[in-house]
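Re: that backbone. Tokens:
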């Protein structure tokens, strides 16, 4: 990565290189705005790269969030082809464990027939045939969404940021912490821990789970909470192929798309086991480019910033539930990690603009990979419209 010569003034400065920050910088650059992206590490290291890499419109409720998810699929498809990063149309298979869950998914498939996010119901036999190692005694059917996508988030953001670094309209400043952002006349002034000062007509603060360095008082009043997730990587000595991303029945009791569908059908599916519910465990199994299995995850919510310590108890619950879903799999854990993000408890997103030029954006929760690109494009387009007004 070559070292650019930094200007003192930009059209747009973005703080934070995760999914929200990287895409706000990308779309600002695409609009012809001279842009600077500031990241505290060499590349982003938190929740934006510590996830399954799933882009799942299937989980989003119809309306604004699903529209953003579908737009994000198009954006990822275009960029992955350009950056030569693998993008898999693996689809998502949501499993049913009871007859009531199976009937609910069957009715949901009918409702999805003419939507932009179509789905196909699979019987028990079709479900078992569709993917390796599913337990016939567990599965009572499934709902398959063929348009959901998957990529390697760490590989993607490294490729995107490396490319941004080589363009003429966006500079990248890694290993740098922005310690203050203040309005000065018609500009925002950004000061870094290294003593550098930059100015911009607009600044987007996308600092993820860091709610302490910049604007802590505003975030403290913003109804934000932290969420810590825990995930595992499993060996695959027999080189089995999963074929699709698989979600446990717990997912259909958590995701907004399924909760809305339950309301429309007039049904209420039972909540998961209280222990699993308390730890926010919802089981996903995916497969990476090395044919290893990625298993997770848990959701521990708190008002205080959590540590990165891992829980053996949580790991045990995840594995034990996965053993019910799958047979003939080797559950040898070869890696484990956590990710931390923030979530706006009521709105699902925290956005606030200060002095018409400092834009705070965080709290998107676990839907950042799925909807972040579409949201960033909206924000930059809106910025361009404002600037073009006489």
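Recovered sequence:
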């Amino acid at each position: 990565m070559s070292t650019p010569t930094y200007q003192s003034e930009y059209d747009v400065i973005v703080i934070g290189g995760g999914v929200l920050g990287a895409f706000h910088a990308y779309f600002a650059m695409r609009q012809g705005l001279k842009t600077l992206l500031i990241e505290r590490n060499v590349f982003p290291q938190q929740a934006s790269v510590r996830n399954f890499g799933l882009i799942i419109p299937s989980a989003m409720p119809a309306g604004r969030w699903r529209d953003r998810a579908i737009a994000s699929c198009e954006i990822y498809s275009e960029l992955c082809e350009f950056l030569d990063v693998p993008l898999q149309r693996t689809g998502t298979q949501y499993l049913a464990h009871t007859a009531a869950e199976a009937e609910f998914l069957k009715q949901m498939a009918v409702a999805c027939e003419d939507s932009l996010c179509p789905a196909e119901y699979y019987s028990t036999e079709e479900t078992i045939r569709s993917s390796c190692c599913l337990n016939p005694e567990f599965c009572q059917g499934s709902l398959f969404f063929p348009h959901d996508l998957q990529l390697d988030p760490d590989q993607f953001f490294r490729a995107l940021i490396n490319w941004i670094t080589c363009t003429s309209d966006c500079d990248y400043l890694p290993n740098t912490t922005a310690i203050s952002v203040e309005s000065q006349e018609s500009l925002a002034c950004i000061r870094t821990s290294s003593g550098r000062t930059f100015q911009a007509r607009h600044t987007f603060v996308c600092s993820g789970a860091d709610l302490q360095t910049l604007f802590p008082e505003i975030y403290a009043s913003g109804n934000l909470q932290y969420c810590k997730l825990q995930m595992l990587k499993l060996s695959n000595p027999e080189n089995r192929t999963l074929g699709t991303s698989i979600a446990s029945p717990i997912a259909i009791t958590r995701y907004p798309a399924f909760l809305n569908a339950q309301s429309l059908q007039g049904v209420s599916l039972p909540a998961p086991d209280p222990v699993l519910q308390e730890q926010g465990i919802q089981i996903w199994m995916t497969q990476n480019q090395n044919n290893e299995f990625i298993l997770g995850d848990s959701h521990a919510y708190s008002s205080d910033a959590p540590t990165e310590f891992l829980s053996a108890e949580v790991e045990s619950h995840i594995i034990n539930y996965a053993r019910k879903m799958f047979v003939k799999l080797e559950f040898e854990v070869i890696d484990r990690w956590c990710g931390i993000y923030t979530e706006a408890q009521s709105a699902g997103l925290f956005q606030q603009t200060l002095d018409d030029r400092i834009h705070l954006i965080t709290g998107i929760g676990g839907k950042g990979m799925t909807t972040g690109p579409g949201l960033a494009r909206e924000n930059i387009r809106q910025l361009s419209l404002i600037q073009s007004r006489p």
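The chain has two domains: 9-48+154-222+347-388, 92-146+224-344. The chain is about 30% helix and 25% strand.
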